[in-house]
Amino acid sequence: MTEATPLPQDLAGRSALITGASRGIGYGVARHLLDRGATVTVTARKAAELDEAAGSLGAPDRVLAVAGNAGDADARRAAVDAAVERFGSLDVLVNNTGVNPQYGPLVQADLGAVSKIFEVNVVAALGFVQEAHRAWMGEHGGAVVNVSSVGGLRSSGVIGAYGASKAALIRLTEELAWELGPSIRVNAVAPAVVKTRMAEALWSGQEDEVAARYPMGRLGTPEDVAALIGFLVSDAASWITGETVRVDGGLLATGST
């Protein structure tokens, strides 16, 4: 069996904050950045799950867990300030938190649920950028990655409110890239179906059938998305900003829905 090639330690000395990091893509990103030498602050709503996730990363001197609801302004500020206090900087922000409490036709949608989707998926992401800018990046620079979705690039049917919020996040990414350059780079990634608990309803019990629609013949993993984010926050991507990069196994290239 061939041993895995060690990851470069090109993020050593940098401090990253990852939201929605108790599981799924957020946890995968935290693991990847940690393995590349960064210190990581992870945040999520449920303290017990977050503490368990942080402990499983296995580097207590380089991992900080700060529980809080991304939709709460005080919680956002607390997470950012804790990261700067513990690690001395905040060089990387990954806005990964996302919710989708609405399913079905938009014309029949509960507007309270739609408001919650936009509050968490879009407004909270901007709130974290504002806090990061205030606490560190405004003076020192940094890199931001927003986790969008292929649902933000095309109509998404029964999860239309979620797709609309992810489209707004892509637009927000472009606006912030223009506004905050050259010292702060802001990009987004747009995954297709990734095997996480949040997306389980989209593939559970029919994984082979769903995967067959992808040119790569499989669904995504958190590690697929994490590797792309790791590139975007690194110096290797120093002339990339305002971009939304698909990580979708070729799904959109097929033109299928």
TrEMBL record:
CDD domains given for it? SDR_c
- Which InterPro entries is this protein grouped with? NAD(P)-bd_dom_sf, Sc_DH/Rdtase_CS, SDR_fam
Q: Name one Pfam family in it.
A: adh_short_C2
Q: Which domain of life is it from?
A: Bacteria
Instruction: Describe the family membership recorded for this protein in Swiss-Prot or TrEMBL.
Output: Belongs to the short-chain dehydrogenases/reductases (SDR) family.
- Put simply, this protein is called SDR family oxidoreductase
* Upper taxonomic lineage: Bacteria, Bacillati, Actinomycetota, Actinomycetes, Pseudonocardiales
